[in-house]
Amino acid sequence: MCMPSFLGHKLGYIHTPHIWPSMKDSLPLPDNKKLVVTYRVEPGCLGPNGIDHVVSFCEFAHKSIQTLDADYVSWDIVARLDKNLPEMQFGVGGKVLTHDQADKYLAVFNKGLDEFEGHLGSKLAELINEFMGF
To answer: How many domains does one find in the chain?
Structure first.
């Protein structure tokens, strides 16, 4: 996979003459350089009638989560109505990243993907409780 040039030196996939020396010093990043995180919420997470609420919840969560790591992450919270699609997907500049590539991207900001996913899971659990009125 060919990576955007600003990530090439950090992820080791491509090398170009126009490499950013430090993305951390350029925060907030422009939208086309942010990590796009698509999280697909399963209806079952919202209880036995989750299918009736999942789209509304996703709209609520999408609005609520936009400030989380907003300097370098762009969020897309959607319903997971197709089990063939991954629960979580990463991309930058229109290119899909593997789990390992997303981990290396986050390492630039001193974050690990496991920690990042855990934080997101906790935040989504809070939002589900808020949405459901618990």
So the answer is: 1
